Amino acid sequence: MKTTNHRAWLLVLPVVISVAFSAILPLITVINYSVQDIFGPFQRVFVGGEWFRDTLRDSELRGAFFRNLLFSAEVLLLEIPLGVAVALALPAKGWRASLSLVLVALPLLIPWNVVGTIWQIFGRADIGLGGFFLNNTLGLNYNYTNDPFDAWMTVLVMDIWHWTPLVVLLCYAGLRAIPEAYYQAARIDAAKPWAIFRYIQLPRLRGVLLIALLLRFMDSFLIYTEPFVVTGGGPGNATTFLSIYLSKLAVGQFDLGPAAAFSLIYFLIIQIFCFIFYTMILNLGKGPAR
Amino acid sequence: MSKTIPRATVRSAPRTQVPRGLGRRLFVVVYFMLLLLPIYWMINMSLKPNREILGGLTFYPHELTFDNYRTIFTDPTWYMGYVNSLIYVGMNTVMSLLIALPAAYAFSRFHFLGANHLFFWLLTNRMAPAAVFLLPFFQLYQNIGLYDTHLAVALAHLLFNVPLAVWILEGFMSGVPREIDETAAVDGYSFPRFFLTIFLPLIRSGIGVTAFFCFMFSWVELLLARTLTSVAAKPIAATMTRTVSASGMDWGLLAAAGVLTIIPGALVIYFVRNHIAKGFALGRV
Amino acid sequence: MGGSGQPRSAASPRPPSDVARIELNSLAHSYAPKVQRPGDYALRPMNLTWQDGGAYALLGPSGCGKTTLLNIISGLIKPSEGQVLFDGADVTALAPEARNIAQVFQFPVIYDTMSVFDNLAFPLRNRGVRGSEIKKRVQQVAELLDLTPDLKYRASGLSADAKQKVSLGRGLVRSDVAAILFDEPLTVIDPHLKWILRSKLKQIHQEFKLTLIYVTHDQVEALTFADQVVVMVDGSVVQMGTPQALFEDPAHTFVGYFIGSPGMNLLPCRLAGSAAYVGDHPVPLGAETLARAQQAVTPESRVVLGIRPEFLGCSAEENTQSGGVAADITAVEDLGNFKIATATLGGTSVKAKLSEDALLTPGRGWLRFPPERTKLYIDDRAV
């Protein structure tokens, strides 16, 4: 077992310093904003909890919140099963495995605004293959700049395209860590492929799946750059997710106070969700392993 | 057949094998096609003049041209964007690894006061909504005189890369038996010498995987990088958004710039591909 | 219920008809696609028969091909050459689930999310056995393996030895199983529990007359468990025999060296006249050994003389009747109920195991090689 050694803090100290440097001062500044009304660089008034009360009453923000929650739920429900399926189907060894990993990881290495650009182009009916195919070959009236549903689907498909690879990589790693003897025992026990998945692979993927869940929840709840490039939050408010609305408040209208108040609430919500997932991971590691 | 083998089992045995393998391969092929199609489309567009792009849909460049790439490679405002991005991403990857290695070792080997809380706190820094934290970031880095330097972006990206690096490395280090540490101590190795000459080579693959993820998250990030730079350290991703919106939509150029942003990432994966396959097989991630 | 000592009857988990003689017919395996030289073989060509109901140990150092051979028998690996026959029927192409064999692995394999009951029922459910039948069998096997109190709990919470019993139980519940293969199953078990589990295995063997094949690299484990021990080295089976035969009559220098403590003395020698010369010292040989050796030997062959320390005589005085070879005794160790003398002969050190009251001190001494116990090996094989 691990030994108790509080001097281990010395090893951890560089991490704490480097992260705190970029984390704590900005956080304090944001808290500062959230309780003041800022008119200009030297004119500010303390307003207490007013911005927080306003925020909780703001119907547009509430709309963005539920929109984002729906989006995150859809993303998790689609990306995780798809990622598991792809990871199961990928070759396990040899040059094919290397090639597959390189190809799978490709979307993850594209800057987020370029991802937006790729889909912005791809979805256009005049110059994009995807939009052209939907309109001219399938005869649908697809236009992501006008139709809220089309815009939503475009952002969703883009996210699936962009982030399923992360789930695939994590699950692939989890699958490779299952000892061969489990598969051998299952063959001797005459287990069918479904039973192998249900009783061997899935239970042993629980850990990585929770990590995938955590990362995908955080990032989809914070999504900004990609939909901003593709739809700019429109048409109307159809794809105005929380971060997009917030940056409109903070940068567009310079309503720093309400924006700061809401981002603190926002931060808190994500932390609560993640704390739940994180505790699940920790307990998972302790429970069945012993 | 031997009389002892139940007939039902014998019949079912060959049935499961062939069609499953086929369907599986088909599924992978279709997935990869859908994955590569949007990328192909951008490459396709980058090799066309705007005339052809706007003139009608063509599945491959009829008027093949490298003008878009030529523009990027001859104009310093374009190509310096790549250089700037590579500089701060490289700095960030090296810094993240150097900082995270000892900490990951501590998390994997010792119990210490507040370890679990600290770990969660580190992770929470990935969760801050960037939109509102940008302004304080800008003010902070301007006050300490780092605004518009590569170091500023590299430091800012530590915020989300260091926790991730600690997390991944800890998984790999926990896979190395503790007895190795003890044996080395008994053999008279000092801790730094043990760590550098024995321990690090053992988790080589883990370092490869971690470097890959640090590179990836730093390379793809735009908001912080754009906020903390103006001219001298401006990343390519920002160059793309600014230049293009200023001069109207030059689709071919935009696509070419986009294609060029994929190349460093593709090279990195190519070089670490064996580490990834092996590293993922060893680590618990 | 099928408790200990109960004869095979209607209550026993399996009917008596499923018996299997396992034959390996010019079997060989290579992991490389093409075999260019003998070293490419993980298993070199072999013919071997495992009789029904035998308790076999497959003994050899790590990496000698034991596990490969075991996996070929269970069908997890398809051999690149040769056939596997069960009772004369060719099963080489059959998948493991279609063979009447169960296997227990080095590390306990249990289905974490299932209860112990479901774990034991799993192989039966997959084979479409009726629910009431499953319940009856699982209860019998649980009783036999002392798992009844754990049946309703999650298998992941069990200790390592109980998990290994669950693995074994998944083989025992099947009525069609005729042989159980064990791949170093006690590696992760506490030493004192090893004894309990091993006697459980012997009990099961006696009760059900299953064929058991037990892979191990531990000679004590092999010799105490098995009726027949198969010794492997470098991908070949070098000897199959009772523990006694392995001890008295090693067919290969490796068997001599690997089995016994200390192992057999192996002395390089050359043949001349009616004796083998170790250095300048003639060692007399039995007439039959000599005749066979003279037939087999060629100028290039490596000739080695082997004698167990237990059979090598060692005394301080020359015994004129039986003859002896003069040697330097370098050490005498008293190990409680016996003594080990170390001597040098022709530049090679030899050991002799003596009774605890033997009077011997380092210095000049005489070694006696009883001709009926003195073996001769040409290129590692007994003549």
UniProtKB/TrEMBL annotation, chain A:
Entry keywords, A to Z = Membrane, Transmembrane, Transmembrane helix, Transport
Q: Where found, per UniProt? A: Cell membrane; Membrane
Q: Where are the transmembrane segments?
A: 9-31, 69-90, 102-122, 160-178, 207-225, 264-284
> Among the record's GO biological process terms, what is one?
transmembrane transport
Q: What is its main location?
A: membrane
Presence of the UniProt keyword Transmembrane in the record:
yes
Where the record annotates domain ABC transmembrane type-1, the positions are 65-277
GO CC field: plasma membrane
**Record's bilayer topology term:** Multi-pass membrane protein
Q: Which family does it belong to?
A: Belongs to the binding-protein-dependent transport system permease family.
The record's PANTHER family line, in alphabetical order, gives: GLUCOSE IMPORT SYSTEM PERMEASE PROTEIN GLCT, TREHALOSE TRANSPORT SYSTEM PERMEASE PROTEIN SUGA
Protein name in the entry = Glycerol ABC transporter, permease protein GlpP
Q: Which organism is it from?
A: uncultured Truepera sp
